[in-house]
Amino acid sequence: MTDVLHRAADVSPRAVIGKSWRKVDASAKVTGELRFADDLTLPRMLHAKLLRSHVPHARIRRIDTRRAAALPGVAAVLTGRDLPTPFGILPVSQDEHALCVDLVRFVGDPVAAVAARDEETAAEACTLIDVEYEPLPAVGSIAEGLAPCETPIHDHGDRGNVHKHVALEFGDVDAAMRDAELVREDVFFYGGSTHLPMEEHAALAHWSPDGTLTLWSSTQTPHYVHRALSAVLGLDPARVRVIATPNGGGFGGKSDPFSHEIVVAALARATGRPVKVCLTREEVFACHRGRHPTLMRVRTGVRRDGSIVAMDFTALLDGGAYGSYGVASTYYTGALQTVTYQVPHYRFRGARVFTNTAPCGPKRGHGTPQPRFALECHLDKIAEALALDPAEMRKRILQPPHSVTANWLRIGSMGLGACIDAVVAASGWREKFRRLPYGRGMGIACSSYISGAGLPIYWNDMPHSSVQLKLDRSGGVTAFCGSIDIGQGSDSVLAACVAEVLGLAPGDVHVVTGDTNLTPVDLGSYSSRVTMMTGHAAIQAAERARDALADAVAARCGIPRERLVFTERRVLDAEDPEHGVSFAEAVQIAEAMHGAVGTVGSYTPPRAPGRYKGAGVGPSPAYSYSCAVAEVEVDPATGIVRVPKVWIAHDIGQAINPTLAIGQIEGSVYMGLGEILMEEMTYRDASRNLVHHHPSMLEYKSPTTLEMCEVESFLVGEPEPQGPFGAKEVGQGPLLPIPPAVANALYDAIGVRVDQVPCTPQAVLRALKEKQRGGAGRYGPSPAAFPEYAFPEPLRVRTPAQGGDGRAAAREAR
Q1: DSSP secondary-structure letter at 729?
Q2: How far apart are CA 198 and CA 186, in angstroms?
Q3: How far is it, in rounded angstroms, from Cα 255 to Cα 363?
Q4: Rg, Å, the chain Cα set
Q5: What is the DSSP string of 374-421?
Q6: Class of domain 10-18+462-603
Q7: 648 in Cβ contact with 662 (< 8 Å)
Q8: CATH no. for 369-455+619-779
């Protein structure tokens, strides 16, 4: 079958219509037929379906596609042998195949694909494909993933099923702990959850007669999908065009290149027809790439005033079946603890394991909600032990602005103190905390997040984002950029940045985005990077256009260039506003002098000070900050937790579009409530089949409008020097404080701790029952059962306060 596909690839797609070949693989592993019907029997566009594994871990012994290929209306059938090149989002984890070649690694792994005249025929054909599996031992938990094994899920990784382990130490943690006046240790668990966008994944592929592939896809990263298609299909990148369609929600779940995107391209090449695939909701649950289930242990030494002297943080992540962004996810669970609070000595150890469940990846807040939940609940317990107000204690230990942290992250503006003040005042914190009737409580939590990653996924010296502007004679401006609007409003931010510089209204700027043929490269809509990076690139391009117009107008009108002002669609003399021209006339003057007017702009983040291995995860041009107060009502008879209201303040720097910013904050609150109260990816593992418990929007519980609380939002902060017009991120950071704020409020309400996410009614009742029996009144992972893992000796880095230079100590010295 592979030979047949290669023959089909060597000729024009139109030339193979009406032909039929049959081949039986010599090894008898794949038996099947690739058929092409003539134009009269099939519609112009075909539909694809994927056959997915129903076992969690197995060798593929045999695939027989003959019955599927013989079904009327079927145009082509593919298996893993037809697409043998692996791919993945990170260069260090190229461990996926568009269709499994030898092994399946979770229930839902794609094994074969069919293109047919309609979805129903393609789905029926999938049921006719016979696959013989040889079951292998399944790994279903973090503890199992850490254990020695004879048949690891992948043959790469740091040890057995451990995909990645990290050990870093900044300063001398053990010595600092000995000087602490209080040392506390806690264990927490954060369950996995999925993105649940309203729109499922979909893709459409088409090959033009000149051999160019065009793929339309609901993706957040067209640049990286373009890269994967080129590699897997063996194509010249110049012959691949990816158009990112407007997304009906992404939240990180469409940040990877996916198998269905590659498969429809291969099917379109094989059949010579456009091929479309729309995943079902159950398939979206299988694609997943959502929140990593994470088990954490945090040990912190403090003084009596609450100031931190040292912190030791360990995170164990369940990564699911594939690498995805997992290496970065592992580092992120330890990177940002120091960005919020002063931690002079810090040790982080993290390990991500492969399991035979749906692969995890980046969900809103990528890698940081889990440690933030642990840290903020941990700090509340410390505040209680020291008899301190948790809000005041947090204010006392904030990381200073314009500083460098112990792990060598450079902080710019830092408005978290103002955020705390805003929500404390608005919520009546001082009057309500520890003073409400039983069953009602208040909780507080803080957070920080990046405004774009400091390094690209594939390290290089090229810009992270670029913008091209075209100015036409009518006065219109078109901005071209590879970024993609996934609902966060980045298109309007791009238009606003250009319009602000050129003195236009945002509606005067036409935006073209997410097309790898038409737009310059932007690395994608992830890591809250678009406003920061695309904004800077747009401003630079607009300033260059303004300069070109100013030179021409100054020369034509005799106005000194430095006196020209661009405002209200005019270019005028600041000292004589009546003397000037319209913006359209300015473009015409410049075009008459120099030819067509077009400019480019680009942005590359400043280099971070860290030089140790692992320093690439965590740096950002700027960090946003959030503080939330949650009010809860708990029914001790049922364990049901309601959240009537959340007060949240976000340090955004200067908001470019305050309405959009408030919308992002409220969306983050909604998702945070879902994670703390009800959302969870769980699997049936009693028989080791690891089938998802509830892969549908009916059974996977997510808040409706009835569960959504009232939100009072505040935009605070001073303009960020590194931000475009002083702006910082708002798309992801406001989610982070919501789960711990609710958990802390629960304790204030009924005096029990639930140290895990989600905080279900069952968990609340168990904590209450333990308290009634004279226990601590806690539900969560047992500290005694925390899995032990032999981490490597930590990479030791001297802190800025110790006179370090950002580099690790020599191995011999360690």
Answers
A1: -
A2: 37
A3: 9
A4: 28
A5: HHHHHHHHHHHHTT--HHHHHHHTBPPSS-B-TT--B-----HHHHHH
A6: alpha beta
A7: no
A8: 3.30.365.10
d(CA 691, CA 684) in angstroms, rounded, equals 5
3-state class percentages of the chain: helix first, strand second, coil last, to nearest 5: 30, 25, 45
Domain spans, the chain: 10-18+462-603, 37-136+200-246+254-287, 369-455+619-779
Question: What would the pLDDT profile of 363-395 be if each residue is shown by its tens digit?
Answer: 999 999 999 999 999 999 999 999 999 999 999
Contacts of 676 (CB under 8 A, 6+ apart): 738, 739, 742, 743, 757, 758, 759
pTM equals 0.94
Q: What is the pLDDT of residue 36?
A: 46
Hey, what amino acid is at 201? Answer: H
pLDDT digits (tens, 9 = 90+) for 227-281: 999 999 999 999 999 999 988 899 999 999 999 999 999 999 999 999 999 999 9
- CA dist., res. 412 & res. 532, Å (int): 14
Cα angle 53-55-56, degrees, rounded to a multiple of 5: 105
Residue 696 class from Cβ within 10 Å (0-12 exposed, 13-18 middle, 19+ buried)?
Answer: exposed
The Cα–Cα gap between 633 and 498 comes to 47
Q: Poorest-confidence range of 31-45, 730-744, 760-774?
A: 31-45
Residue 517 burial (CB count, 10 A): 12
Contact 262, 228 (CB under 8 A): yes
Hey, is 530 helix, strand or coil?
A: helix
What CA–CA distance (Å, rounded) separates 638 from 761?
Answer: 7
Average pLDDT of span 587-598: 97
Helix axes 738-750, 369-385, angle to 10 degrees: 30
What is the rounded distance in angstroms from the CA atom of residue 730 to the CA atom of residue 720? Answer: 13
- Residue among 331, 400, 417 nearest 368 (CA): 331
Hey, what are 384's tokens?
A: 């209680």
Q: Are 777 and 664 in contact (CB under 8 A)?
A: no
Q: Please state, in angstroms and as integers, the Cα–Cα distance from residue 389 to each residue in 56, 382, 736, following that order.
A: 49, 10, 21
Could you give the 3-state DSSP secondary structure of residue 264? helix
Q: How many CB atoms lie within 10 A of CB 126?
A: 20
pLDDT, tens digit, for every residue of 74-103? 999 999 999 999 999 999 999 999 999 999
Tokens of 244: 């990112």
The alpha helices in 440-529, defined as continuous H runs, are 490-502
Alpha-carbon dihedral sign for residues 298, 303, 306, 308:
negative
User: Contact 439/634 with Cβ under 8 angstroms?
Assistant: yes
CA distance 478 to 509: 6
Number of other CB atoms surrounding residue 435 within 10 Å = 12
- Cβ–Cβ under 8 Å, residues 368 and 336: yes
Fold classification of 37-136+200-246+254-287 (topology level):
Aldehyde Oxidoreductase; domain 3 (3.90.1170)
d(CA 767, CA 688): 29
